[in-house]
Design goal:
Blueprint (H helix, E strand, L loop, with lengths): L3 H9 L2 H4 L2 H19 L5 H8 L8 H26 L10 H10 L3 H34 L4 H18 L4 H15 L2 E2 L6 E2 L13 H19 L18 H7 L1 H16 L5 H15 L12 H24 L5 H12 L6 H6 L1 H29 L7 H20 L2 H19 L5 H23 L11 H29 L1
Antiparallel strand pairs: 1-2
Helix pairs in contact: 1-17, 3-5, 3-17, 4-5, 4-10, 4-15, 5-6, 5-7, 5-14, 5-15, 5-17, 6-7, 6-14, 7-11, 7-12, 7-14, 7-17, 8-9, 8-20, 8-21, 9-20, 10-18, 10-19, 11-12, 12-13, 12-14, 13-14, 15-20, 18-19
Length: 502
Amino acid sequence: MFGSGELLGLYFDGIPLVFQFNVLLALTIGTTIGIIFGVIPGLSATIGVAIFTPLTYTMSAPVAFAILLGIYCGSVYGGSISAILINIPGTASSVMTRLDGHPLALKGEAGRAIGLATTSSFVGGIISVFLLAFFAPKLASFALQLSAQEYFSICLFGISVIAYISEGSPIKGLISGILGLLLATIGTDPITAYTRFTFGKAEIVGGFEVIPIMVGLFGISEVLKMVENKNSLPLKAEKFSRVKINSFKEILKNITTVIRGSVIGTFIGAVPATGGTIAAIISYGLEKRISKHPETFGKGEERGIIGPESANNAATGGAMIPMLTLGIPGDVVTAILIGALMLHGLAPGPMLFEQNPEIVSSIFIILLLSNILFLVLGLFGAKYFAKVVSWPKPILVSMILCLAIVGTFSVRNSLFDVWVLVIFGLIGYIMNKLGIPTAPLILGFILGGMVEQYLRQSLVLSFGNIFSFFSRPISAISIGLTILTILSPYITKVIKLPRKQK
C-alpha cells in the first residue's frame, strides 16, 4: 500500500494542517481542559471527549482533533496530580500512581512526585506515538487484505473482551455489550433496506446517533451522581511550592523502567477494549516483581510512579492503532473518537490511510505536540491545576450540563437528540446503581453495526455457509479466542476448585 516515498508523505502531509494558529490554539485549550478533567475525581478523558465531541461539529477536522486529542492526552496525565496530592485518582488509569505518589507527597516531596509523573508520562506518550506511526501504516496495508469473515470475527472478539475486562461481573459486562448490539439493530437494515424497531418514528429510521448516547451515558449520568453526592466535603490537596524540573535525571536513571512501561502501555492499548488502567496495573506489578527491594513499593518508590505513568500514557497511542487501521476502538475514548471521525465525514479503517492520509498524519503530529504541551503545562502549572479539586460542585454540574445539551443539540439542531441524551443519561445512572458498566454498551453499539454488516456480507458471499468463518486462519483464531474469553471465568473456577478442596 505504501512505498517509502508515500510513507514519508504520510508522516509529513499533516504539517501544513497542524502548524496553523487556530489548530495550535485549539490544541493548547484542549490539553488544558483535559488536565482539568483529569485532575477532578469523577471526571475523566471519556467524559471530556464525549462532551466536547458535538461542540466540534462546525470546526475543521484538524481543529476538532486538536481539541479532542488534547483532552484525551491531558486527562490521562491529569489524573496523576490528584492521585499524588489527595490519594484519589482523577482517572482510573492513575489508580496505581497513588500507591507511591501519595506517600511521597506526605513526606513533603509532592513536587518531586508530580515531576516524576509528568516526565514519565511525557516519555511514555512520545514513545507510543513513534510506535503508532511505525506500525499503523503497515497494519492498515495488511487490513486491506482481510475478508468480511475476518473483520466479523475480530469485531466479535473485541466485544467479548469488553465484557470480560469490565469492572465487576463479566456477566453484567456481557449484558451491557448485548444491549449495545441490540441498539445497533434499530433503524434501516444494511442489506435489505427495511426499517426495524422504529415504531413509525422518522427520527430513528437511520438509527440512533452515537453522540447523544455517548454524552448521555458518560456526561449526564455523572452529573446525576454529583447531584446525589451534593453533601460531600470539598477535597483538600497536599501543598507544594513547585514541580521538580530535574526529574528528567531520575527518569534517565530509571530508563529501563520507562521503556518497559511504554512498550507495555502501547501494546496493551492496542488490544481492543483494554486501555491505560490495565497497562498501568501490569507495569506496576512487573516493576515490583523484578525489583531487588519490592518492600519499598507502596512507600514512595519512584519506579512505582514512573512505571504506571509511562504505561498509561503510552496506552493512548496504542489505542489509536486499532481505531485508525481497523476502525475498532482500542478503549472507550477511541470509541468516542470513531464517532468524532464519522461526525466529520471520515471513515476510520484502512481506507482512511488511502483517502485521507493528511488527516492520519495530522493525528500523529497532534498526539506528539499534545504530549509536549502537557509536559510544559504540568511542570510549570501543576500547582494551579491542583486547586481545581476544590471547585464547588454546583459550578461543575452546571458547566457539564450546559456543554452536554448545547453540544448535542448543535450537531443536527434536533430536540429529539436532546431527549435521547436525557434518556440515556438516566439509563447510565441506573446502570451505575445496578453495577452494570456503561462502557461495553457504547462499544457494543459502535461495533454492532460493523458486526452485523460483516456477518451478513459473509453469509451472502458464502451462500449461507457458516463454516466459511473457519476457512481463514485469522477468522478461526479470533472466533476461538472469543469462545475462550467468554468461558475463561468458568474455566478459572474449575481450575481453582480442586485447590480449594485440598
